[in-house]
Amino acid sequence: MKVSSFLYFAGFATKTILFRRKSPILGTVIITDKCNLHCKHCSVNNITAIIHPYEQIHKEMQQLYDMGIRILFFCGGETFLWKDGNRTLRDLVIEAKRMGFLIVNVVTNGTFPLDLPEADLILLSLDGDKERHNDIRGDTYDTIMKNIQNATKDNICFYMAINKINKDYIREVCHTARDTKNVRAVSFNFHTPYPDTKELALSLEEKAAACKIITRMMKEKVPFFNLKSAFPYLIQNKFPVPCHQCVVIENGKLSVCGRCIDVPGLCEQCGYFFVAEYTLLFRGNLKVIFEMLRTYLKYI
């Protein structure tokens, strides 16, 4: 991370903590909900299957920038399906950097070639060992691993939602992250139980067991993008929601924190690790602050 970026984020955090500000710093643009997969745990794919045009996305990016947001995510659907004329996802990342966003990340299922050297992180979904991953996402594991091997930069972070199907295969994903070329780190979430996938949600005991495994993997020097200091709050769902420092924009609609905010009762069952981490950070939790500093300076 550049020194100038670090100073900007440090200043934002200081003012937010001291003055209890609710201004956002992290924004997500949903560039399409079209996806080439139909994953068992996903509730947001192919609802409209619309690929939003470049001018609309550019307008939304500018709107987020003008709000003070400097960490930008591009999400789907599947982001690599996005195209408008000759423009591709890579053009969006390059334009976001030109506009002044300090960190630009992309979320993908990894089934397309990974040629995004301009992105700070490519968050790539891997959902267990080969058998469990393919059970959830279809026969894609080998394709994904080949694309990782051929990626043009080592800016990939595995991104796994822990659910009833793959909860016993956290260790395998950790070892794959540690041992695979071009993978910088691994990041976990708990499954957030949308009404049509609530049967995949973990119990409190299963969450605690998962965090215990992750903690053990951290001691084995697996590179993690998660913060151990947030685990007790995640297990118990005892962190403040929604996270006012994060927003999502999709087809012109701006939502605080995430798309799930409109589903009654879902915020209280949130499984997104970063939501807990950011809300605790901006409430002044010292353990989270220092751990986030170490983690972000190391991997971004």
Q: Give the low-pLDDT segments.
A: none
Along the chain, the helix and strand elements come as HEHEEEHEEHHEHEHHEEHH
Strand residue content:
15-25%
Q: Specify Rg, calculated over alpha carbons.
A: 18 Å
> What is the mean predicted local confidence, pLDDT?
95
* Largest beta-sheet details: 8 strands, mixed
- Alpha carbon gap, first and last residue: 5 Å
Strand order of the largest sheet: 8-7-6-5-2-1-9-10
- Which bin fits the share of residues in helices? 25-40%
Coarse shape: globular
Structural class: alpha/beta
Separate helix tally: 10
How many strand elements? 10
Protein model, in words:
The protein is an alpha/beta fold and 300 residues long. Helix content is 38%, strand content 16%. It has helices spanning 3-19, 54-66, 89-99, 130-137, 141-149, 170-179, 204-219, 231-236, 273-281, 286-299; strands spanning 26-30, 71-75, 83-84, 87-88, 103-108, 121-125, 156-162, 183-190, 246-250, 253-256. The strands form two sheets. The protein has an eight-stranded mixed sheet, sandwiched between helices. A two-stranded antiparallel ribbon has the order 3-4. β7, α6 (170-179) and β8 (183-190) form a beta-alpha-beta unit. The longest helix has 17 residues, at 3-19. It starts with a helix and ends with a helix.
